[in-house]
Specification:
mainly alpha; Rossmann fold; two-stranded parallel ribbon; 6 helices; 5% strand; globular
């Protein structure tokens, strides 16, 4: 997402952050196969480490985008619900609303995940700019 808004010259219109909804990867760098997939597309992630989502994130951000329903459930638990309907699936911004991003942790298919995330982020940018 950061790369897309930077490439479109609209970086100043967005504040983008990433946070885990579970604790398994807190403090870890980007998973090596994911890092390789990003590098294939010229995107670096050096220095990025997983951080835990906090209750304050709900107040600090206008929208919290999740990859799947498990992330939404975890996020609701962390922030204490979703009274302002800020929690959304990424693919809800595409013609594939309701679908989840392919999880490469289980599928080992980083190409499918790349396609899902790319499609979702492009649609999200278009939605937010309109």
């Amino acid at each position: 997402m950061k790369d897309m808004v930077r490439n479109r010259g609209v970086e100043a219109e967005f504040e983008i952050a990433s946070a885990a909804t579970s604790r398994e990867e807190i403090g870890n760098p980007v998973y090596p196969p994911a890092r390789r997939k990003l590098a294939e597309h010229g995107i670096g992630c050096a220095g990025h480490h997983a951080r835990q989502m906090t209750r304050a994130d709900y107040d600090d951000y206008d929208l919290i985008v999740c990859m799947d329903r498990a992330n939404i459930r975890n996020a609701q638990r962390v922030v204490g619900g979703d009274p302002h309907r800020k929690l959304r699936l990424l693919l809800d911004f595409t013609e594939r609303a309701g679908e989840e991003v392919a999880d490469p942790w289980y599928t080992d298919n980083f190409d499918a995940t790349w396609r899902d995330v790319t499609e979702g982020c492009a649609a999200l940018i278009k939605t937010l700019q309109s």
